Amino acid sequence: MDHHLHRDMTTAHCCADCGGVGGEGVSLKACKSCMLVRYCNADCQRNHWPKHKKECKQRAAELCDEALFKDPPAKEDCPICFLPMPLLLISCMSLPPATISSVPIKDYAEANEVLASMSMETYYPCCGKTICSGCIHSLCKSGNNRTCLFCKAETMGRTDKERVDRLMKRVEANDAGAMTALGNRYHLGEHGLLQDREKALELWKQAAELGSSKAHYHLGLYYHEGGKLKKAKFHYETAAMAGHDDARCNLGAMEFKSGNMVRALKHWMIAASGGNYKAMQNLLIAFNQGSTSRATIDATLAAYNKSCAECDLGTE
């Protein structure tokens, strides 16, 4: 029988410290970190900690990894075309069959860095919708881009102040997307706003508390650039578990730099399977160096190309 299952069965109804049995007015509470043992009160938990500490930390780490490396949730769909939205244009581009030599798309990405990092989604501050760039492209071609399809608000001819005011209203309505977007504007000093990294940090934290994976990603970048790696890793992990492939790719890079190649490859495989170009390139480099197998590359590349095919390019 599994050790943890056996432990759960034998300690589910008694205190791990004093042996007190639950029921009949006695409520036992599980250790929140490992969920392996129960206690009748905080005193018993403190008394038992020296004996439980090692096992608790080991199981807590196992639970964390189980959550971190499980399949991420599906990407957010565009509310118009219902296709999954990649974050960047480069994430939509398929690669030829696995090869250790340079592939054409790599040359394209290096020669067009600005285009390769172009966002593939647009946030509408009028109503809080996020639309893929393929649909934006189609709306522009058809001339239907002057008003929002959802709330009919004017979208063209807005001044920087009007754009910011709209974002502010959505922030006041507790919209995590608006908080993240406004934080980005402050971080870069866009739309007439003075660059204010502290204000950006404050907005990203608010959005992260509301569950925004994009806000967690930006916080990860912020702390990573500042050398606060523990905080960066926490926010990258939170974003990755919510399906943010760029955050997971960065986690892989952090693990690689720390010498944890197995964990780095796991992160890159998950991110690449979700359509992340950088992660796929890192895996190809690892294959070239003999760090992973051809079977792994072939399987991951198939998943990568499938994810790319599901995205709406809108580049015709």
Description:
The chain is globular. The protein folds into 3 domains: 3-69, no CATH class; 92-117 and 244-316, no CATH class; 120-230, Tetratricopeptide repeat domain (Serine Threonine Protein Phosphatase 5, Tetratricopeptide repeat). By secondary structure, the chain is mainly alpha-helical. It is built from 14 helices and 4 strands. It has a two-stranded antiparallel sheet with strand order 1-2. A two-stranded antiparallel sheet has the order 3-4. Helix content is 57%, strand content 4%.
What order do the helices and strands come in, and which of them pair?
Elements: H1 3-11, E1 29-30, E2 38-39, H2 42-69, H3 104-111, H4 113-116, E3 121-124, E4 129-132, H5 133-142, H6 160-172, H7 176-188, H8 197-209, H9 213-225, H10 229-241, H11 245-257, H12 261-273, H13 277-288, H14 294-310
Antiparallel strand pairs: 1-2, 3-4
**Which radius of gyration do the C-alpha atoms yield?**
24 Å
CATH homologous superfamily annotation of the largest domain: Tetratricopeptide repeat domain
The overall average pLDDT, rounded, is 84
Q: Describe the oligomeric state of these chains in a short phrase.
A: single chain
Number of helices: 14
- The level 1 CATH classification of the largest domain is Mainly Alpha
- Give helix and strand order, one letter per element, not per position: HEEHHHEEHHHHHHHHHH
Beta content comes to: under 5%
Number of domains: 3
Q: Given the C-alpha coordinates, what overall shape results? A: globular
The secondary structure category is mainly alpha
Give the uncertain stretches in residue-range form. 1-10, 99-112, 312-316
Instruction: Please list the strands of the largest sheet in the order they lie side by side.
Output: 1-2
Q: What is the CATH architecture assignment of the largest domain?
A: Alpha Horseshoe
> Helical residue percent?
55-70%
CATH level 3 topology of the largest domain: Serine Threonine Protein Phosphatase 5, Tetratricopeptide repeat
